[in-house]
Amino acid sequence: MYQCYALEKQLADTFLNRAMFNVLVVLLHRPFVSDGDLHSNSSSIALDAFPKCSSAAFEIDHILKTYEKSFCLKTSRYIISYATYISAIIHVRLATQRYRGFEAHEALRRCLDVLDIHQSFCWDATTAKRVVDRLIVRMGVVLETEGPPDKASNLVLSNLDIDAIIRSFEQE
What we know:
- With 172 residues, this protein is an all-alpha fold.
- It is 67% helix and 0% strand.
């Protein structure tokens, strides 16, 4: 029995480490697409940085889906809440670029659901959810609450309006 528990704990820790890695990827590259000390006027730097942020956000979404199948989200560590928040911030920007059914909408909905769960035991999740909700309203993202999303598109970063995404970071 102890071996089973130890293996389960290692698996949970692996998910947490992967989530932390992807949070760090976003935190490392986000300053290059937002207004700040590291902001560059070169759009080629932003064109390189934002796809890394969005890939990390989708990886966090995949981690959330897989983690939820194996473990209870109500007992997860704080890093899951923080990773969810970081992922949601990127997914809001992606969701402004596509219609309902785009994977970013589905991932954003999942992030909001996880933050709702985490609000019962983590005060920071309440604040994070409030920030994400305000950003959704400000960016004009409409999330459908009923029915399955259409699976009509895949993530194609080359079709995104990167300038609009960069401006959305500058408005914060």
